[in-house]
Write a structure and sequence with these properties.
Layout lengths: L16 E6 L4 H12 L4 E8 L3 H11 L3 E4 L18 E4 H10 L5 E4 L6 H10 L3 E4 L2 H11 L8 E3 L2 H10 L7 E8 L9 H4 L4 H4 L9 H9 L1 H13 L7 E5 L5 E7 L4 E5 L5 H9 L30 H12 L3 H17 L7 H11 L9 H23 L1
Parallel strand pairs: 1-2, 1-5, 2-3, 3-4, 5-6, 6-7, 8-9
Antiparallel strand pairs: 8-10, 10-11
Helix pairs in contact: 3-4, 4-5, 5-10, 5-13, 9-13, 10-12, 12-13, 12-14, 13-14, 13-15, 14-15
């Protein structure tokens, strides 16, 4: 049975739902806090984590009277700023401290908004502990989907990416053998229609400006390169148990159709809504119920057109490389993702050019020996080796 085929109400959901928000200072984390703020009778924030944004952590912990927090950057865990945490608040430190929050008996739901590969440990622990996992960390499933999906139970894994939340809603109650294909929508990013030559001139400031969504820096660059769509195809492959080539990416500049599912009889279901991440966040926390919208409603009478186009794989090579990694499978997506994270950061810091991101990823993939995915420890080793190789490639580019 897939994660979406069981539509029976989840009677074991505690009310109010006791939530741990991992990565509470980022874009998804702050919007999740806003959803919790709007539904105090339904949601109880009991644990929070940040990487190093201690001020934001203290502010949120005081507002929600949180008694368990974690600081992933261990060196910051003794900072005097934390003296202002609520009385009796326990501070966990390091990546291990973040995963410890997932094991707390008072946590019913883990909202994993940790950025990048590191989020896989929290996702794995949450599923292992039979918590509800509301997951905004696509890298966890890109690298470790082969490990995570056998652990996922229907109604216990809710995706938060707007596209995957849309697909989940279209598929709820449907039979997996009746899926013909998935249409995964994409805004096209800030450089839609640009040539490869034009992309060579892109600066970090230009790439950080997304036309539709307000996101963190890493995902903003991924959206500009279209790597984000490649990662989402691999994530959809795992979440919904379909082939990589059964997920079609569709450029939809208006960003109102968040994705569609086409069935074997020719029928297609689409999920539409405002471009506001609080909607999929709230759905993951309210499932199987729906609560009043946190966003402005759309008057579809004023929507004059919906347009669609194919992505340009030759120009946006990160997208094509991600598809290649997904088709290859095994540990290749993990290596590809690690190389992307390193190159993404190097570009943001001005060390390499925009098109050097895909050049770095390609070189690392060429050097990667693919193995079947067996454990988190193995993936950590693959990730480390890919990051080292990416660093060497970047050093060569700089020379």
């Amino acid at each position: 049975m897939t994660i979406f085929e069981d539509t029976a109400p989840q009677g074991d959901r505690h009310r109010p739902l006791r939530v741990a928000i991992l990565g509470c200072s980022g874009s998804i984390g702050t919007q999740a806090l806003d959803v919790c703020r709007q539904h105090p009778d339904e949601l109880d924030v009991v644990a929070l984590s940040v990487n190093s944004s201690l001020g934001a952590l203290v502010k949120a912990a005081r507002e929600f009277d949180v008694k368990q927090v974690a600081v992933a950057e261990s060196a910051r865990a003794a900072d005097p700023v934390l003296d202002d945490l609520p009385k009796g608040c326990q501070v966990h430190k390091g990546e291990r401290g973040v995963t410890e929050l997932c094991r707390l008996p008072e946590v019913d739901c883990v909202l994993d908004a940790v950025v990048g590969e590191e989020g896989i440990w929290a996702a794995y622990t949450a599923l292992e502990e039979d918590k509800i996992l509301a997951c905004a960390n696509k890298e966890a499933f890109v690298s470790g989907g082969d490990l995570l999906m056998p652990m996922a139970k229907p109604g216990r894994l809710l995706p938060i990416d707007s596209e995957h939340a849309a697909i989940y809603q279209c598929l709820t109650g449907q039979r997996s053998n009746e899926i013909y294909r998935i249409w995964l929508t994409c805004s096209g990013g800030p450089f839609y229609g640009w040539t490869r030559e034009e992309l060579e001139t892109v600066t970090p400031r230009m790439a950080l400006s997304h036309p539709t969504w307000h996101m963190g820096p890493k995902i903003s660059i991924d959206s500009a390169t279209l790597m984000n769509k490649g990662l989402e195809v691999i994530e959809a492959h795992h979440l919904f148990q379909v082939g990589i080539d059964d997920v079609y990416v569709l450029i939809h500049r208006q960003s109102k159709i968040h994705s569609m599912v086409e069935f074997c009889d020719g029928s297609t279901m689409a999920q539409l809504g405002a471009s506001d991440m609080r909607i999929p966040i709230q759905y993951a926390l309210s499932y199987p119920d729906r609560w009043d919208t946190p966003a402005d409603r759309i008057d579809y009478r004023r929507m004059h057109e919906f347009t669609f186009a194919k992505p340009d794989l030759k120009t946006f090579r990160c997208f094509d490389l991600a598809l290649t990694a997904g088709r290859t499978g095994g540990t290749m997506p993990c290596a590809m993702n690690a190389a992307n994270e390193v190159a993404n950061l190097a570009f943001r810091r001005g060390r390499i050019g925009f098109c050097d991101i895909d050049r770095t990823i390609e070189r690392v993939m060429e050097q990667t020996e693919v193995e079947p995915v067996q454990s988190l420890e193995q993936l950590a080793d693959v990730d480390a080796r890919a990051r080292e190789r990416a660093g060497k490639v970047i050093d060569g580019i700089q020379r």
